[in-house]
Each structure stands twice: as C-alpha cells, then as structure tokens.
Design brief:
201 residues, Rossmann fold, binds NADP nicotinamide-adenine-dinucleotide phosphate, 7-stranded parallel sheet, alpha/beta, globular, two-stranded parallel sheet, 6 helices
Length: 201
C-alpha cells in the first residue's frame, strides 16, 4: 500500500517511527516545511489537492499540527497554538474533502485525548475533537473509510520526549509504537469498522 503521511518532519515524528515498523508498505512523508519529503500545508486545499492527485495514495494519514517545544503545555506563542488548532480542525476537513475527490479509500487521523486536566492543552483537545467529528461524518456520508486514533504518548516520539523531559506532572499513558503499527495494519486489513475511534492506551 502507498501511505501518505502529512505531518512528518523529523525522525522522531510519529509517522516516521510508524514507517520503520510497517516495512511492507511504501511511505511518503509531507509536512509544512517539507524537511523529510514533500512540502504541503494541510490547511491549504490547493496544496493538499495537488499532492494527493500526484501521489495517488491508498491511505492518507493526517498527523499534522502539534505544538512546538516553546508552546506545549506552556503557551506563550499564541499564533503557533492557533495554527496548530487550524492544522488539526480545518486541515481534517481539507484532507477528507480531497480524499473524497480523489477516491482515496482510507484516511486515518492521529489524535489524542479530547479532555485534559491542564487548560493549556485546550487547543490540543479542540483539534482532536474536530478530527473525530470529521471522521464520524465521513464514515456516514462519504465514500472514504475514516478512522480516529486516540493515542497516548508515543514512546520515542517528539511529543513523548518533550513531555517526559519537562517532568511537569503532565503524564499521559504511554503507547509503544508497535501498538500503533498493529492498529494501522489492522485498519488496512479491514479489522476495524469504518468510523472507529480506536483508543490506544
Ligand atoms: N507523539 C505523541 O505522543 C502523540 C500523542 C497523541 C497525539 N499525537 C498526535 O500525532 C500527530 C503527530 O505528532 P508528532 O509527535 O509526530 O509531532 P511532530 O513530530 O511535531 O509532527 C507534527 C508535524 O505537523 C506538521 N505540521 C504542523 N502544522 C502543519 C500544517 N499546517 N501543514 C502541514 N504540516 C503541519 C509539522 O511540520 P513542520 O515541522 O514542517 O512545520 C510536523 O511535521 C499530532 O497531531 C499529535 O497531536 C501525538
């Protein structure tokens, strides 16, 4: 299968780690900067349309839009925070829309919890909730099979290292990358119902 992951720009991005565990598939990485592959802003529908049309993936994974180190759990850069919300919330609609138009069979969203004890995680929570709404709607009203992955902290990932490194008491449940790889393979093999919210912790 050809899997396009939008939201991979480092070797500690979850999408990159996933690819190391699903060697039977061909992975194409994209991100806003294009550091590890294609440059594509997930909120730009023309850019997403062009990328999906050119790559013709069997699966699109939306993994875009988490906080940078300077903002996670300690928002000082509100513009960065709002752009991350947009990447998840609006970007989810852009990806689904272009997937429908280009007959992509499967779209997977990398999300997380939809509630949190720390109010500084509110933008994260909002983005995740919007993704889940998009998944439910797509499953019921479109030709695309859509899945929401509610992930805890992926061990070894950028976000996992960041939160663990801070030690400020925000400790979500940890998830091994092997677990994520099994779930993604399960989706591809048809083991989950269309529209599933799959909790990984
Ligand atoms: N890691 C975890 O433990 C964990 C847990 C729960 C949920 N998640 C979710 O999984 C996803 C991936 O997380 P990660 O840890 O792999 O983070 P990451 O390595 O920081 O990756 C986030 C990616 O999003 C890209 N991005 C941001 N805005 C974008 C936009 N408008 N258009 C295109 N790309 C954009 C960034 O690209 P540039 O660097 O090029 O700007 C970066 O490649 C996130 O949605 C996160 O919320 C992760």
């Amino acid at each position: 299968m050809k899997i396009l992951v939008i939201g991979v720009s480092s070797q500690t991005s979850v999408g990159y780690l996933l690819a190391q565990h699903l060697k039977d598939h061909e992975f194409i990485f994209a991100s806003r900067s294009g550091k590890l592959g294609e440059a594509c802003d997930v909120t730009n529908n023309e850019a997403v349309a062009a990328l999906i049309f050119r790559i013709k993936p069997d699966v699109v994974i939306h993994a875009a839009g988490f906080y940078r180190e300077e903002t996670l759990g300690n928002i000082q850069d509100w513009q960065a925070a709002s752009s991350n919300v947009l990447a998840k919330a609006f970007g989810a609609l852009v990806v689904l829309n272009e997937a429908v138009k280009n007959a992509v069979p499967i779209v997977i969203f990398f999300g997380g919890k939809m509630e949190h004890a720390d109010p500084l995680f509110a933008p994260f929570v909002v983005g995740n909730g919007a993704m889940l709404v998009a998944v439910r709607f797509a499953a019921e009203h479109s030709s695309v099979q859509a899945y929401y992955l509610e992930m805890g902290l992926i061990i070894g990932s950028s976000m996992g290292k960041l939160i663990q490194g801070r030690g400020q008491g925000v400790h979500d449940e940890e998830v091994h990358i092997e677990t994520l790889a099994q779930v993604v393979q399960g989706i591809i093999s048809g083991s989950y119902a269309n529209g599933s919210q799959i909790v990984l912790y």
